[in-house]
Amino acid sequence: MILVFWSLKCKTSYNFECAKYIFCNQQSIDTILQPQWRSWICPIAYGPCFLQYCAFFCLTYLFNFVLGCLLNRLLAQGVDELAAWIVGECAELEYEVKEQRKFRNYVKKEMTRLKNEKIKMECCLDQADEHIRHLESNLEFLRYEVCEVRGEMLRAQNIQSQVAAELRSQEFAQALVALEEKRKELALELSEEKASRMDSSTSSCPS
């Protein structure tokens, strides 16, 4: 748009300079006009100077008026389209900002929830570690108790074996004593029988 206005300004100033030069110097229009403008002014190029000036002035302003109307129409349409585009972009940006705010709030809530869950998990892990340490201490105590029980069982087995050996030895001694008593009883019986036999033999012999 800036280039279009600059070109119109240049052409308008050039046209005024041409008309002023023709009116003041009474020269032909061919000596001042550029080649691209001669085809427009050819029908009135060789008339009187006043008619040439009027025709050139009218054509210049008619061209500028038509071009200005077209530019105004284009600018108005462009401004409307630009305004509609800006309004649409603003609405889209507002929607995106709202969505980003919602997402940011959601992310904050999720971060808070995750932090709370992390704290809870850390507490649970600490409790689990403490429980594991307690179980390990109980396991060590149970191992010590098992070792003590095994030692007691071994000592009990040794005592039991000793008692069994003593019982066997006592039973053997008692059996020996019983046999000795029986032997004495048998010897006594034998001696009594011998004595009775000797008495009977002496009594049966004649005097």
TrEMBL record:
Q: Which domain of life is it from?
A: Eukaryota
Q: Which residues form a coiled coil?
A: 169-196
Provide the species name. Juglans regia (English walnut)
This chain's protein is named: Uncharacterized protein LOC118348771 isoform X1
* Originating gene: LOC118348771
UniProt keyword list? Coiled coil
